[in-house]
Fold this protein.
Amino acid sequence: MRTRLLLFALLAPAPAPVLAQSSGVDCCSRFDYVLEKTILKVDAVRIEMEIRDEAADRVEALLGAWSRSRSVEDSVAALYLSADDANIRMTFLVSVSLGRFLGGVRNTLEGLAEVGILSRAEADRVYAGYVERFSVLDGRGIKDGDVMERELRGDTVSTRFTAVTGETPIDEISVGSERRREILGAFFSRKSDFRDGLIDQVFDRVEN
């Protein structure tokens, strides 16, 4: 019965937000999170994200009706994965080689293929696009203070990479549902290093 109710919350038209009425706090559309990736807990990357469509309202309504549990966390992640209007800003807080960056991309895409967000063919195709797109950084790599910004509008993805020096070596638009699924999956899939921290932010706002 609980599973059916959660499924209904995912698929039914979103009701009017309930938490905002009581708290006045935007619990579910904005994130600001720093991932500590290394053993030494060195800050690696800062994520600033805004979910601009009804996915955020649906999360808010869901959390107004259910207490935190693993199944509710999975439902929240699924709603964010369904978003088709989002802005994401990634600020690199350490310098890494291009090879290490692309290795991380490859690992992420393999994880998305494992959980079915991408097919293997899509993962390979998206990775080839990263290799081509970021080849302009060969020899330079990623520097502390570089910024990568994404705008998702349906299946259209705008990518802008701004170097800490102010140059913009990457500024492009691509179209394809696999790009949207890849970007959101990198943050909200079960294989994501970001997922727990981002979802914690949502629940912390609701509970506090």
